[in-house]
Design goal:
- The complex is a heterodimer of chains A (266) and B (269).
- Chain A has helices at residues 57-65, 86-92, 109-119, 124-137, 153-166, 183-198, 210-216, 239-247, 257-265, and strands at residues 2-13, 31-42, 46-50, 72-77, 80-81, 93-96, 171-175, 202-206, 219-224, 227-233.
- With 266 residues, chain A is α/β, with parallel strands linked by helices.
- Chain A has one domain: P-loop containing nucleotide triphosphate hydrolases (Rossmann fold), CATH 3.40.50.300.
- In chain A, the strands form two sheets. A six-stranded mixed sheet of chain A has the order 6-7-8-3-9-10, sandwiched between helices.
- The N and C termini of chain A lie far apart (41 Å).
- In chain A, 44% of the residues are buried.
- By secondary structure, chain B is mostly helical.
- The longest helix of chain B is centred in the last third of the chain and has 36 residues, at 228-263.
- The two termini of chain B are 30 Å apart.
- The chains are: A alpha/beta (266), B mainly alpha (269).
Amino acid sequence: MDAVIFDSVSKVFRHRPALFNWIGKERVEPTVALRDISFRVQTGSVLALLGPNGSGKTTLLKLISTMLLPDAGRVIINRAETHRDPQQVRRCVGFAVAGERSFFPRLTARENLDFFAALDDVPARERKARIQFMLARTGLLDAADTLMMKFSAGMYQRLAMARALMKQPAVLLLDEPTRSLDPAVTADIWELVRELSADDTTVLIATHNFQEAATVADFVAVLRQGALVAHEDVKGLNAQEVRSLYFQTRWDGVTNNFELVAESCR
Amino acid sequence: MNVAAFADKSVAIVRRDLLTALRYRSAFVLTAAGTLTELAAFYYLSRAIGPGFRPAGLDYFSFLLVGTGFYTFLIMGIHSFLQSVQEAQQTGTFEVLMTTSTPPPILLLLSAMSAFSRNVAQLLFYLAVGLVIFDGTLPRPGIAACVLVFFLSVLIAIAIGLMAAALQVAIQKGSVVLWALGSGAWLLTGTLFPVASLPQPLRFAAGLIPITHALDAMRTALLQGRGFSALSHEIGILALFALTLLPLGLAVFSFSLYRARREGTLSAY
């Protein structure tokens, strides 16, 4: 079964410039974030989204989470369409956002998890044990009763992952999950992702890290200026091979900047 | 959503707000000090004007006490909806909150109800200080009518609050609009002086503002001890406002969220 289906999805951000736009000139042309994207992700598999900054990776994750709605096409998660049945989608999707500002700064890590767990309908009798488990699993048990405002970037990231996992989602979205983490914790997170996949959780990871893609992903999707330029099976490939795949990607049959960059790296 | 889940979420939100408020230690003290100062100003204003001025036959300080106390309660209640969205936008939690399993209008309603309960405590404190320290009087409070007026006024404040929240989602500077409207309402609703003192066109405009009727009915119930029959006209108007504005508020808020999701401005602030 396919847990995630993108069917001809497009997303355009329109800019409404401020008054007196001649004083401080602001962009007025729309930004095409995703153009006619179609792909499927099988239940229990891990898909790594690769692409340069601004290629549409986070937009794609936000469309799955219902933070955004598509301008065209359909996004279907576990048979529920994000446009028609957003609440059903939200029940089965966990999203570890990349930004650090997504917690209540004057609450502790434990209090934040408890709050979001209540909103996500985690049964009250299970909540305490689940919080304890997730804090331990993300290595935050010692900081459980520290106010969020005193957390480091890496701690924020780990707690975002713990929060996303609290409701035991069928689909987990990770936006650059190891960006601020040290190598030991990174390895631990990769192991966790593989465990989740083995338990039939579908995982989508937006990343710039080829090692991460090679270690945890079953498939890689490469985005370039909002277009899906590759969707490949990478099981068994190493980081170097994933990197080669990324740089050899062609777009609209024309050699793109990746190859130029790749040339300069060789 | 069943009752147990609703109660569970309500407790979580009240707990979050209480813990956050307690951790801003100085805010409690400053609020209490602000209340004392404000009431002192009204007390000396009423003394300066003298006992001859009795709006609607009421002692002026008591008129001010109930008027300003209830006006502040309603405006703060409306503002709390906007503030819930604004704070969530500024702390970066808004996008995440809007994608939990709790439907956004319910989440906003619960957040605002938590703020309302805090405002009730402040209103009671305000009235208690006015009565005990500044010798205000509530000669014959009609409790039953007062409770009904309070309930209808809160429904109206929720409806307007939903629209204020929608404004915040749409333009991210909803507080400016609310401030402008609040200033107008302060003038027109009869908070500081009777609406009868205003010229006819402004009196007509005052009648279109639900808070005018809420204040009038609350004063009549609390200070004159009038029952349901004497208040039936005002209660009817308040009920009509509530029935009209509540579905409108919900629709406007839902539309503003839909629009923000389409435009990608959910996290903008």
